[in-house]
Design a protein that fits this description.
Shape: globular
Structural class: alpha/beta
Largest sheet: 8 strands, parallel, barrel
Distance between the termini: 39 Å
Strand order of the largest sheet: 1-2-3-4-5-6-7-8
Radius of gyration: 19 Å
Number of helices: 12
Helix content: 40-55%
Length: 325
Protein backbone atom coordinates (compact mmCIF):
# COMPACT_ATOMS: atom_id res chain seq x y z
CA UNK A 1 0.00 0.00 0.00
CA UNK A 2 1.46 3.38 -0.96
CA UNK A 3 1.47 6.47 1.24
CA UNK A 4 -1.62 8.07 -0.28
CA UNK A 5 -3.54 4.84 0.17
CA UNK A 6 -2.42 4.63 3.81
CA UNK A 7 -3.66 8.16 4.50
CA UNK A 8 -6.94 7.49 2.71
CA UNK A 9 -7.54 4.22 4.54
CA UNK A 10 -6.80 5.79 7.93
CA UNK A 11 -9.10 8.71 7.17
CA UNK A 12 -11.89 6.29 6.24
CA UNK A 13 -11.37 4.44 9.52
CA UNK A 14 -11.80 7.71 11.43
CA UNK A 15 -14.94 8.72 9.52
CA UNK A 16 -16.47 5.26 9.93
CA UNK A 17 -15.99 5.38 13.70
CA UNK A 18 -13.56 2.47 13.80
CA UNK A 19 -10.59 4.69 14.61
CA UNK A 20 -6.96 4.05 13.78
CA UNK A 21 -4.62 1.61 15.50
CA UNK A 22 -1.21 2.30 17.01
CA UNK A 23 0.33 0.73 13.93
CA UNK A 24 -1.72 3.07 11.72
CA UNK A 25 -0.50 6.05 13.76
CA UNK A 26 3.08 4.89 13.28
CA UNK A 27 2.63 4.70 9.52
CA UNK A 28 1.11 8.18 9.41
CA UNK A 29 3.85 9.75 11.53
CA UNK A 30 6.46 8.26 9.21
CA UNK A 31 4.82 9.31 5.94
CA UNK A 32 7.50 10.47 3.48
CA UNK A 33 8.01 14.22 3.27
CA UNK A 34 6.44 14.52 -0.18
CA UNK A 35 3.10 13.31 1.21
CA UNK A 36 3.08 15.48 4.33
CA UNK A 37 0.76 18.07 2.79
CA UNK A 38 -1.78 15.33 2.07
CA UNK A 39 -1.54 14.12 5.68
CA UNK A 40 -2.14 17.66 6.93
CA UNK A 41 -5.03 18.19 4.51
CA UNK A 42 -6.68 14.97 5.67
CA UNK A 43 -6.23 15.93 9.32
CA UNK A 44 -7.92 19.24 8.56
CA UNK A 45 -10.85 17.44 6.91
CA UNK A 46 -11.28 15.37 10.08
CA UNK A 47 -11.13 18.49 12.24
CA UNK A 48 -13.80 20.30 10.29
CA UNK A 49 -16.06 17.27 9.94
CA UNK A 50 -16.09 16.57 13.67
CA UNK A 51 -15.65 20.11 15.04
CA UNK A 52 -16.60 22.61 12.36
CA UNK A 53 -14.61 25.77 11.66
CA UNK A 54 -14.57 27.09 15.21
CA UNK A 55 -11.23 27.72 16.93
CA UNK A 56 -11.20 27.35 20.72
CA UNK A 57 -9.53 30.45 22.16
CA UNK A 58 -8.22 30.34 25.72
CA UNK A 59 -6.37 32.71 28.05
CA UNK A 60 -4.15 31.73 30.97
CA UNK A 61 -3.42 33.35 34.31
CA UNK A 62 -0.23 32.22 36.02
CA UNK A 63 -1.55 32.83 39.54
CA UNK A 64 1.55 31.57 41.39
CA UNK A 65 4.86 31.97 39.65
CA UNK A 66 8.30 30.40 40.08
CA UNK A 67 10.07 28.53 42.89
CA UNK A 68 8.37 25.25 42.04
CA UNK A 69 9.74 22.25 43.93
CA UNK A 70 9.94 20.05 40.81
CA UNK A 71 13.02 19.73 38.58
CA UNK A 72 11.42 19.59 35.10
CA UNK A 73 14.38 20.43 32.89
CA UNK A 74 12.43 22.62 30.46
CA UNK A 75 10.83 24.83 33.07
CA UNK A 76 11.89 28.37 33.86
CA UNK A 77 9.81 28.29 37.05
CA UNK A 78 11.68 25.43 38.74
CA UNK A 79 13.48 26.31 41.98
CA UNK A 80 16.34 24.10 40.78
CA UNK A 81 17.42 26.56 38.09
CA UNK A 82 18.49 30.20 38.11
CA UNK A 83 16.46 31.68 35.29
CA UNK A 84 15.95 35.22 36.60
CA UNK A 85 12.16 35.00 36.31
CA UNK A 86 10.20 37.12 38.76
CA UNK A 87 8.34 35.35 41.54
CA UNK A 88 5.01 36.06 43.19
CA UNK A 89 2.43 34.30 45.30
CA UNK A 90 -1.33 34.02 44.86
CA UNK A 91 -2.96 37.35 43.94
CA UNK A 92 -6.21 38.67 45.35
CA UNK A 93 -9.50 37.42 43.91
CA UNK A 94 -10.21 40.97 42.72
CA UNK A 95 -7.05 41.01 40.62
CA UNK A 96 -7.88 37.70 38.94
CA UNK A 97 -11.52 38.66 38.38
CA UNK A 98 -10.40 41.81 36.59
CA UNK A 99 -8.16 39.83 34.26
CA UNK A 100 -10.82 37.18 33.67
CA UNK A 101 -13.28 39.91 32.70
CA UNK A 102 -10.80 41.32 30.18
CA UNK A 103 -10.23 37.82 28.78
CA UNK A 104 -13.97 37.45 28.24
CA UNK A 105 -14.15 40.84 26.55
CA UNK A 106 -11.21 39.79 24.33
CA UNK A 107 -13.29 36.85 23.11
CA UNK A 108 -11.73 34.03 25.15
CA UNK A 109 -14.07 31.11 25.76
CA UNK A 110 -12.15 29.74 28.71
CA UNK A 111 -9.86 31.05 31.43
CA UNK A 112 -7.28 28.71 32.94
CA UNK A 113 -5.79 29.29 36.40
CA UNK A 114 -2.26 27.89 36.56
CA UNK A 115 -0.03 27.58 39.63
CA UNK A 116 3.68 26.67 39.76
CA UNK A 117 3.86 24.17 42.58
CA UNK A 118 3.90 20.39 42.99
CA UNK A 119 0.45 20.43 44.57
CA UNK A 120 -1.72 23.00 46.37
CA UNK A 121 -1.50 23.18 50.15
CA UNK A 122 -4.86 23.14 51.94
CA UNK A 123 -4.54 26.89 52.57
CA UNK A 124 -3.62 27.73 48.98
CA UNK A 125 -6.33 25.45 47.61
CA UNK A 126 -8.89 27.33 49.71
CA UNK A 127 -7.64 30.61 48.21
CA UNK A 128 -7.93 29.22 44.69
CA UNK A 129 -11.49 28.09 45.40
CA UNK A 130 -12.31 31.63 46.55
CA UNK A 131 -10.89 32.99 43.28
CA UNK A 132 -12.96 30.52 41.23
CA UNK A 133 -16.13 31.45 43.12
CA UNK A 134 -15.53 35.14 42.46
CA UNK A 135 -14.96 34.53 38.73
CA UNK A 136 -18.16 32.47 38.55
CA UNK A 137 -20.17 35.15 40.34
CA UNK A 138 -18.77 38.22 38.60
CA UNK A 139 -17.55 37.18 35.14
CA UNK A 140 -19.27 34.04 33.89
CA UNK A 141 -16.44 32.62 31.81
CA UNK A 142 -15.63 28.91 31.66
CA UNK A 143 -12.96 28.22 34.31
CA UNK A 144 -10.24 25.64 33.88
CA UNK A 145 -7.43 24.81 36.32
CA UNK A 146 -3.88 23.51 36.25
CA UNK A 147 -2.84 23.15 39.89
CA UNK A 148 -0.51 20.15 39.91
CA UNK A 149 -1.27 16.95 41.76
CA UNK A 150 -4.74 16.70 43.30
CA UNK A 151 -6.41 14.69 46.01
CA UNK A 152 -9.80 13.14 45.35
CA UNK A 153 -11.48 15.68 47.65
CA UNK A 154 -9.81 18.60 45.87
CA UNK A 155 -10.91 17.31 42.47
CA UNK A 156 -14.47 16.86 43.73
CA UNK A 157 -14.43 20.41 45.11
CA UNK A 158 -13.34 21.82 41.74
CA UNK A 159 -16.19 19.94 40.08
CA UNK A 160 -18.60 21.34 42.69
CA UNK A 161 -17.37 24.85 41.76
CA UNK A 162 -18.25 24.15 38.10
CA UNK A 163 -14.63 24.01 36.92
CA UNK A 164 -15.01 22.57 33.44
CA UNK A 165 -11.64 21.07 32.68
CA UNK A 166 -8.46 20.10 34.51
CA UNK A 167 -5.06 20.42 32.83
CA UNK A 168 -2.24 18.10 33.79
CA UNK A 169 0.28 17.45 31.04
CA UNK A 170 2.16 14.20 30.54
CA UNK A 171 4.99 16.43 29.21
CA UNK A 172 6.65 13.71 27.10
CA UNK A 173 6.73 9.98 26.38
CA UNK A 174 6.99 7.60 29.31
CA UNK A 175 10.32 6.34 27.94
CA UNK A 176 11.70 9.91 27.98
CA UNK A 177 10.17 11.13 31.23
CA UNK A 178 12.97 10.20 33.66
CA UNK A 179 15.39 12.32 31.58
CA UNK A 180 13.07 15.31 31.94
CA UNK A 181 12.02 15.04 35.60
CA UNK A 182 13.26 13.12 38.65
CA UNK A 183 11.16 14.61 41.46
CA UNK A 184 8.00 12.77 40.42
CA UNK A 185 7.07 10.03 37.97
CA UNK A 186 5.04 9.59 34.82
CA UNK A 187 2.71 7.37 36.84
CA UNK A 188 2.12 10.26 39.29
CA UNK A 189 0.81 12.30 36.39
CA UNK A 190 -1.44 9.53 35.14
CA UNK A 191 -2.83 9.14 38.66
CA UNK A 192 -3.83 12.81 38.85
CA UNK A 193 -5.56 12.58 35.47
CA UNK A 194 -7.49 9.56 36.73
CA UNK A 195 -8.50 11.44 39.90
CA UNK A 196 -9.74 14.39 37.84
CA UNK A 197 -11.66 12.13 35.46
CA UNK A 198 -13.25 10.18 38.33
CA UNK A 199 -14.44 13.46 39.86
CA UNK A 200 -16.28 14.30 36.64
CA UNK A 201 -13.86 16.93 35.34
CA UNK A 202 -13.04 17.07 31.66
CA UNK A 203 -9.37 16.43 30.90
CA UNK A 204 -6.80 18.61 29.20
CA UNK A 205 -3.42 16.97 28.78
CA UNK A 206 -0.56 16.95 26.34
CA UNK A 207 3.09 17.82 26.46
CA UNK A 208 6.05 19.59 24.96
CA UNK A 209 7.72 18.57 21.75
CA UNK A 210 11.31 19.47 20.96
CA UNK A 211 12.79 18.27 24.27
CA UNK A 212 15.31 16.09 22.45
CA UNK A 213 12.89 13.19 22.09
CA UNK A 214 12.87 10.93 19.04
CA UNK A 215 10.04 10.73 16.53
CA UNK A 216 9.25 7.32 18.04
CA UNK A 217 8.84 8.95 21.44
CA UNK A 218 6.50 11.56 20.00
CA UNK A 219 4.49 8.66 18.61
CA UNK A 220 4.50 7.08 22.09
CA UNK A 221 3.09 10.30 23.57
CA UNK A 222 0.46 10.60 20.83
CA UNK A 223 -0.72 7.03 21.37
CA UNK A 224 -0.96 7.57 25.13
CA UNK A 225 -3.05 10.69 24.54
CA UNK A 226 -5.31 8.67 22.27
CA UNK A 227 -5.75 6.08 25.02
CA UNK A 228 -6.69 8.73 27.60
CA UNK A 229 -9.22 10.34 25.24
CA UNK A 230 -8.98 13.85 26.76
CA UNK A 231 -11.48 16.50 25.75
CA UNK A 232 -8.52 18.78 25.05
CA UNK A 233 -4.92 18.16 24.03
CA UNK A 234 -2.40 20.94 24.50
CA UNK A 235 0.88 20.70 22.61
CA UNK A 236 3.72 23.09 23.40
CA UNK A 237 6.78 23.63 21.23
CA UNK A 238 9.84 24.03 23.41
CA UNK A 239 11.16 27.55 23.82
CA UNK A 240 14.53 26.96 25.51
CA UNK A 241 14.79 29.00 28.70
CA UNK A 242 18.19 30.43 29.66
CA UNK A 243 19.36 28.85 32.91
CA UNK A 244 17.60 25.52 32.34
CA UNK A 245 19.34 22.30 31.24
CA UNK A 246 17.62 22.55 27.86
CA UNK A 247 18.67 26.12 27.11
CA UNK A 248 20.77 25.00 24.10
CA UNK A 249 18.25 22.52 22.69
CA UNK A 250 17.92 22.80 18.91
CA UNK A 251 14.55 23.52 17.32
CA UNK A 252 12.38 20.83 15.78
CA UNK A 253 11.88 21.09 12.01
CA UNK A 254 8.47 22.49 11.15
CA UNK A 255 7.61 19.27 9.32
CA UNK A 256 7.92 17.28 12.57
CA UNK A 257 5.52 19.66 14.29
CA UNK A 258 2.96 19.28 11.48
CA UNK A 259 3.28 15.48 11.66
CA UNK A 260 2.57 15.47 15.39
CA UNK A 261 -0.52 17.65 15.22
CA UNK A 262 -1.90 15.78 12.22
CA UNK A 263 -1.49 12.33 13.77
CA UNK A 264 -3.05 13.42 17.07
CA UNK A 265 -6.09 14.58 15.08
CA UNK A 266 -6.41 11.15 13.46
CA UNK A 267 -6.25 9.58 16.94
CA UNK A 268 -8.64 12.08 18.57
CA UNK A 269 -11.09 13.39 15.95
CA UNK A 270 -13.44 15.06 18.45
CA UNK A 271 -10.98 16.67 20.87
CA UNK A 272 -9.82 20.27 20.98
CA UNK A 273 -6.18 20.17 19.87
CA UNK A 274 -4.53 23.34 21.06
CA UNK A 275 -1.31 25.00 19.89
CA UNK A 276 0.21 26.27 23.11
CA UNK A 277 3.60 27.68 24.15
CA UNK A 278 6.04 28.40 21.34
CA UNK A 279 3.32 29.15 18.79
CA UNK A 280 4.43 32.71 18.11
CA UNK A 281 8.20 32.34 18.54
CA UNK A 282 8.75 28.94 16.89
CA UNK A 283 6.20 29.11 14.08
CA UNK A 284 6.76 31.84 11.54
CA UNK A 285 3.02 32.06 10.82
CA UNK A 286 1.84 31.99 14.48
CA UNK A 287 0.08 28.71 13.86
CA UNK A 288 -1.81 29.27 10.58
CA UNK A 289 -0.46 26.04 9.06
CA UNK A 290 -1.21 23.97 12.16
CA UNK A 291 -4.77 25.33 12.31
CA UNK A 292 -5.13 23.73 8.88
CA UNK A 293 -3.31 20.53 9.87
CA UNK A 294 -5.39 19.19 12.75
CA UNK A 295 -5.28 21.91 15.39
CA UNK A 296 -8.44 23.80 16.37
CA UNK A 297 -7.42 25.76 19.45
CA UNK A 298 -4.94 28.41 20.58
CA UNK A 299 -3.88 30.22 23.71
CA UNK A 300 -3.81 33.96 23.24
CA UNK A 301 -2.32 36.92 25.13
CA UNK A 302 0.66 34.96 26.47
CA UNK A 303 1.77 31.95 28.45
CA UNK A 304 3.22 31.14 31.87
CA UNK A 305 6.57 32.86 31.45
CA UNK A 306 6.29 34.34 27.93
CA UNK A 307 4.22 36.92 26.17
CA UNK A 308 2.11 36.08 23.14
CA UNK A 309 -0.02 37.58 20.40
CA UNK A 310 -2.68 40.07 21.36
CA UNK A 311 -6.22 38.73 21.11
CA UNK A 312 -7.10 41.05 18.23
CA UNK A 313 -4.11 39.88 16.19
CA UNK A 314 -5.11 36.25 16.72
CA UNK A 315 -8.72 36.97 15.81
CA UNK A 316 -7.59 38.42 12.47
CA UNK A 317 -5.26 35.45 11.90
CA UNK A 318 -8.15 33.03 12.42
CA UNK A 319 -10.48 34.95 10.12
CA UNK A 320 -7.76 35.20 7.45
CA UNK A 321 -7.71 31.45 6.99
CA UNK A 322 -11.49 31.11 6.93
CA UNK A 323 -12.01 29.90 10.49
CA UNK A 324 -14.14 31.32 13.29
CA UNK A 325 -13.74 32.33 16.92
Amino acid sequence: MNSLEIIKECKEKVFSGIGISSEDAKKLLNIPEEFLSELAKSANEITQDFNGKKVDVEQLNNIKKNACSEDCTFCGQSAFFDTGIETYQLPSPEDVVSKAQKAKEDGAESYCLVAAWREPSPKDFEKVCKIITEINDKVGISVECSLGFLTTKQAEKLKELNVKRYNHNLETAKSKFSEICTTHTYEDRLKTLAIARDAGLELCTGGIIGLGETREQRLELAIELGRLFPEEVTINILVPMPGTPLELQTDLPNSEIVRMFSVIRFLLPESVIKISGGRESKLGDSGEELLQSGANGIITEGYLTMGGNKAEKDRKLIEKIGLQT
